[in-house]
C-alpha cells in the first residue's frame, strides 16, 4: 500500500510541475499600470487570465529604453494599438 501511495503522490507532483511549466508564472506580472504614448511602444504582448492571475495583462517594450511596462487595458495607447492592428473599417 505504501508503494502505491508513493507512486500516486509522485504522479500528482509530476502533473503539477508539468502544468506549472506550461504557464511559467505563479502570479500576475503587472503590479503597476502605466500610461505610455503610443509612439514610444516598440512591441507588446498580451497575457490572458490564468489560474495564477485572473486579469488580462498587457506588457509593452519601450523603444528608447530597455524597459517593459504594463498598460491598462482601457488606456489610450492600447486603444490606439488595437485600432492600428484591426485596420480601417
Automatic annotation (TrEMBL):
Residues 25-85 form the Chemokine interleukin-8-like domain. Pfam families: IL8. It comes from the Eukaryota. One of its GO terms (cellular component) is extracellular space. Keywords: Cytokine, Signal. SUPFAM superfamilies: Interleukin 8-like chemokines. GO terms for molecular function: chemokine activity. One of its GO terms (biological process) is immune response. Residues 1-19 form the signal peptide. This is Chemokine interleukin-8-like domain-containing protein. It comes from Astyanax mexicanus.
Amino acid at each position: 500500500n505504501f508503494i502505491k501511495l508513493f507512486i500516486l503522490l509522485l504522479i500528482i507532483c509530476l502533473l503539477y510541475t508539468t502544468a506549472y511549466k506550461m504557464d511559467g508564472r505563479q502570479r500576475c506580472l503587472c503590479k503597476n499600470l502605466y500610461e505610455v504614448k503610443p509612439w514610444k511602444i516598440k512591441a507588446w504582448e498580451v497575457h490572458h487570465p490564468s489560474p495564477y492571475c485572473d486579469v488580462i495583462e498587457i506588457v509593452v517594450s519601450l523603444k528608447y529604453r530597455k524597459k517593459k511596462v504594463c498598460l491598462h487595458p482601457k488606456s489610450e495607447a492600447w486603444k490606439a494599438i488595437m485600432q492600428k492592428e484591426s485596420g480601417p473599417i
